[in-house]
Write a structure and sequence with these properties.
2 copies of one chain form a homodimer. Chain A is mainly α and about 220 residues long. Chain A has 2 domains: about 15-60, Homeodomain-like (Arc Repressor Mutant, subunit A), CATH 1.10.10.60; about 70-200, Tetracycline Repressor, domain 2, CATH 1.10.357. Helix content of chain A is about 70%, strand content about 0%. Chain A is built from 9 helices and no strands. Chain A has helices spanning about 15-35, 40-45, 50-55, 60-75, 85-100, 100-115, 120-145, 155-180, 185-200. In chain A, α4 packs across α6 (about 100-115). The longest helix of chain A is centred in the middle third of the chain and has 29 residues, at about 120-145. The radius of gyration of chain A is 20 Å and the shape is elongated. At the A-B interface, α1, α5, α6, α7 and α8 of A face α1, α6, α7, α8 and α9 of B. Chain A binds a DNA duplex (30 and 30 nucleotides) through α3. Chains A, B: GO terms for molecular function: DNA-binding transcription factor activity; transcription cis-regulatory region binding. Chains A, B: InterPro entries: Homeodomain-like_sf, HTH-type_TetR-like_transc_reg, HTH_TetR, Tet_transcr_reg_TetR-rel_C_sf, TetR_C. Chains A, B: This is TetR/AcrR family transcriptional regulator.
Amino acid sequence: MQSRTPASRTGRPRSAAADAAILAATREGLVELGWSGLTLSDVAARAGVAKTTLYRRWSGKHELVVDAVAELFDELVLPDRGSLAADIEGVVLQFAAILNRPEAKCGLMGVVAESTRDDALRERVRTSIVERQKRLVLAGRARAQERGELPPEADPEESARTVDLIFDMAAGAVVHRTLVSGKPADEEWARGFTHILLLGLTTPAPNLTPPGKTVS
Amino acid sequence: MQSRTPASRTGRPRSAAADAAILAATREGLVELGWSGLTLSDVAARAGVAKTTLYRRWSGKHELVVDAVAELFDELVLPDRGSLAADIEGVVLQFAAILNRPEAKCGLMGVVAESTRDDALRERVRTSIVERQKRLVLAGRARAQERGELPPEADPEESARTVDLIFDMAAGAVVHRTLVSGKPADEEWARGFTHILLLGLTTPAPNLTPPGKTVS
DNA sequence: GCTATTACGCTACGACTCGTAGCGAAAGCT
DNA sequence: AGCTTTCGCTACGAGTCGTAGCGTAATAGC
């Protein structure tokens, strides 16, 4: 939503049912028409709502789709599969499953495309979708540390960098696999991905910040 | 181009200069207007070409942008920096530099968004842009094998899978870093990424296809 | 219950883009 | 020359955009 109701005003309140109907209609429209085919008139018709109501709540297609897609990714959970490797695989597969839904793919990519020219929109995408799911990485690492699979973090700053890197690698790889390569991110693929990611994490970093380049 | 001239027909040939002007105008339009703001009328005006000429050569915005963006990625080369790690870093940084240009970002993402609902378009993206650049991974691996940094590949089938995986991880991570996270894929980031990727590659895979899950 | 205030549905609007058709002129090939 | 194809131009109906205006519906406060 863009203009959150300030606590409680006087007058007729906004229909929460309409919000749900609109977001659902948006996803439905994305499935059938795709990003550039989606029109707000169509969404309004599907939701059984006047077009003007849409514009009263969202400033345009971009913002609306962000909210519609964000709901999809809230389904993600961190399953306890017993080992860090299995946990990573589990999340990757869940993410792949969501990204396999047409409304998620084209909605997300369309919004990302527009956000390259609109800083406010990119920030909205980041906070509404991406940053929310970073919880999975944090929870997974914490659990792995309890198990003793990962050492407790020393430098908090580098720790944050590592979380960001993991997230970029995981989310990016799944997106690229399913959307660009057009092949399924199935169990076998997730296993290969996890194998590479995990080795890099468990092996102590030689020098990420220090001197020059003794990477060998 | 969509309708390649069959060798040489009789009649006035298509102006190659117009092609170049149109593609350049498309990129220019992407910078200023973004994906959804880009109109073919505008491109025609910029290129000094009639709108009808555009439609004679491309079937629509999607196809046109694919060609316009594909040219950008042909700038990629594999520098010989002396080690596999340095080579990977070099390519990653080059890729990041290209993806940092606004016309590349929004053009690529816009096309990918549409390609989620258009198999033909996705295939076009794959062959025109993605598959072309897979040469870098192949060349880099070959060079690393000459150096003795990587073992010669045994199973050709699994080898192909690994190349795909590397490509998905590298391209996906850079895209996600620059477009979604909105942070620069600079040298430090590339170093961290290469560190993780490389350890996973040089360590012999325990079981990618076999039994169940003896990972950890 | 009455009133103030806000949300809602509906209609209509000008501005714009889309993709195509039709025409005469230009530019090559043989 | 003559033939063939491209090109630039104009015009067109269809469709979308985001907004404005109006009457009605649904709450909160009194």
